[in-house]
Amino acid sequence: MTAAARYAVYLVPEPASALWRFGCEALGRDAVTGEPCSGFAIDGIDAKSWRELTAEPRRYGFHATLKAPFRLAAGRNADELFAAVETLAARSAPFEAGPLGVTTIALGRNRAFVALTPIAPSAELARLESAVVRSLDAFRAPLTEAERERRDPERLTQRQRETLEAWGYPYALDEFRPHFTLTNAIAGAERIAAALAREFERRVASPLLRADALALCAESGPERAFTIVRRFPLGGREAA
Fold it and tell me: Which of 18, 26, 42, 92 has the least CB density, counted as fewest CB within 10 Å?
């Protein structure tokens, strides 16, 4: 197995679901096929402008982060990582994580991004994230200074800076806030969120999030798009 530039473990909806289709169409790209999805736009924003508003999350695909992107540690290889994710998935039962709703997540400096987030906290989802973060951390290479600076540590809380140093991501474990990002960080996010909420209600009959697999994703080169390499179903069914 050839190593990628970076790997990540994400929670993604089942690829045949309306939720997955909504996320792919909103972002303009399907992370399973790697193909673009065109034509999505909300009231008052043309398709070209919408693609500009979603450029950053498009590269990562529609997902909620469990283990943030990381380079493989020295002495580790992709085959070992695949085996570890498969084992972890087999030990975890699928579950319902509750309904999702459209909201905004503030980043400061009068900017926020729009995201789908669970309406209520899910203890099972928090346990799954903790297991993924802790079990796979031995595969993560230490942060470089450039990677650290990319997280804008001056904007983080003290606890988030500590989490970044310990686990390579500021929003892990007790800082975990599951979300499916839908836009760049923008001004005026509330107006966009309201329009996206209407689209979400129109396009997705059930807002329920089902956690049924760990998606191992890979970035083929620096600043390239992430694609889903393999979905490992929770409970050990045949991987897809």
Answer: 18
Q: Domains plus CATH for the chain? A: 6-233 (3.90.1140.10)
Beta-strand relationship, 226-233 and 208-211: unpaired
pLDDT per residue as tens digits for the range 108-157: 778 899 999 999 999 999 999 999 999 999 999 999 999 999 988 888 99
Query: Which of 91, 84, 90, 55 is closest to 67 using CA atoms?
Result: 84
What does the alpha-carbon distance between residue 31 and residue 15 come to, in Å, rounded to a whole number? 10
> Do 168 and 68 contact (CB within 8 A), yes or no?
yes
Whole-number Å distance between alpha carbons of 225 and 56: 10
pTM above 0.90, yes or no: yes
Comparing CA positions, the residue from 69, 55, 7 lying closest to residue 182 is 55
